[in-house]
Amino acid sequence: MCINLGKADRAIRAIAGLGLIVYGLVAQNYIVAAVGAVPLLTAVFGFCPFYPLFKLNTGCKKD
What we know:
By secondary structure, the chain is mainly α. The chain contains 2 helices and no strands.
């Protein structure tokens, strides 16, 4: 599995994911917190399962 997220993409996803998790926990809206876990996990693993479907790649350089 190739990492298909670049550094900027991962940083934006991590910040957005953490923001959604914090907001969801403060507002006691656990669905929003669970949704925030998705971009956070994609940032941690560096792989987005939807990118190959749309032929996007911001991480790996293919020869």
